[in-house]
Amino acid sequence: MKVKIWGCRGSLPVAMTSAAVREKIKRAVQAAQGRTFDGEADLDRFLDQDLPWPVANTYGGSTACIEVDTGDADYILCDLGSGVREFGVRMMVEHGPTKPQTYHVFLSHLHWDHIMGFPFFPPAFIPGNTIRIYSCHPDPEASFRKQQSEPNFPVDFSVLGADIQFVPMTPGEPVSAGGATVTAKLQNHAGDSYGYRFESGGRSFVYATDSEHKQKNAEETQAVVAFFKDADLVAFDAQYSLAEAVSLKEDWGHSSNVIGVELCLEARVKHLLMIHHEPVLGDEALYRILEETLRYEELMRPEGAAPLRISSAFDGMVLSLPEESDG
Amino acid sequence: MQLTVERRERAVVVTPSGRLDQTTVPDFQARLLEVLDETSGSAVIVDMAQVEFISSVGLRALNIGFKKSKAGGGSLSVVALRPIVREVFSISRFDKVLAVHEDLNAALAAVDAT
């Protein structure tokens, strides 16, 4: 199983500013002073090994969209945030307009940052393609039609040429799609959200975004631990700090890196992937949060327990389960 | 987890010891809220010198105490964080939410200044 991040941000798409680009260039040039480079491979080594990650890279700014690749011919996506535009462009390059494909989309919920990319998803316009949108919410179709109609968008939903099917799901009742068995779980978020656990070829991936963990009810916490149990990878909403999540932003429906570590350690998860990054945070800030999260895991890890691997998602990241990231 | 309460002239000093985690926090939180009920409107200082570790549930308990003291017209501050506890406060950004002082004298001075 492979998991590819097409959109790692929460709430709102963002783009790196000119000032941020210049700052990275300055730091890279400073670090390169006095060096010579023996070809492109040497330059790549410098970028990968000598520059701090947030100088040589960026997290990206597209909203929620994650691809789950089971090796099946069909495609699986989690959510249709702005990241799905680039995925759609990739599909057009790979398959063109004449080779029909099937896409299985699992929707966490219908808030705008999770569906805003759909009007810009080229495969939806092409007759012959099939798009099955799985959702535990009642009438998700209404949200898609409303989003893609005047005055919100100039091209009406009815113009879309693909066969678009809305498939109702019930939490706790698995469905088979795209080579995976998929189970949904209700989460705490305004208007409800749903997490999904994907099982395929002996590997497991949990997509758990837009979920606030209030720790007020042990039964509720244990249900989350059971949902995450022994997963190879959990993509977890770590948008806020714990302090924000319990004070100013309480009941805003998101969680923190600290809670992600605690839940994943208890569930013996192998790899925690922080997602739904706060749009106001730049690359340096997100990288610092990753370092702090690694430290918190060290402090929290029970004696003798295997370390929990932790990463912070970036657009374009690819994780092969259970191998190392090649993104 | 042990907890002592000392009523001083200008503040109530609550001193927990041991770990503030899932096992110990229910008791700690109940006792902290009891103290806040009994001393509504007072300055409460939580002396953390003997707290070895704090996890998210311990931080939440402090935050619940903080909100309750504020609602009652009082205050809640924490003092004397051990290095590891200080790290957890920083990672969780609780050092931006709660008033954190180096020691009891600094906290008492802050009470006097209000």
UniProtKB/TrEMBL annotation, chain A:
Pfam families: Lactamase_B_2. It comes from the Bacteria. CDD domains: TaR3-like_MBL-fold (cd07715). SUPFAM superfamilies: Metallo-hydrolase/oxidoreductase. Residues 62-254 form the Metallo-beta-lactamase domain. InterPro entries: Metallo-B-lactamas, RibonucZ/Hydroxyglut_hydro. This is Phosphoribosyl 1,2-cyclic phosphodiesterase.
Automatic annotation (TrEMBL), chain B:
GO terms for molecular function: anti-sigma factor antagonist activity. It holds the Pfam family STAS. CDD domains: STAS_anti-anti-sigma_factors. It comes from the Bacteria. Residues 1-111 form the STAS domain. Belongs to the anti-sigma-factor antagonist family. This is Anti-sigma factor antagonist.
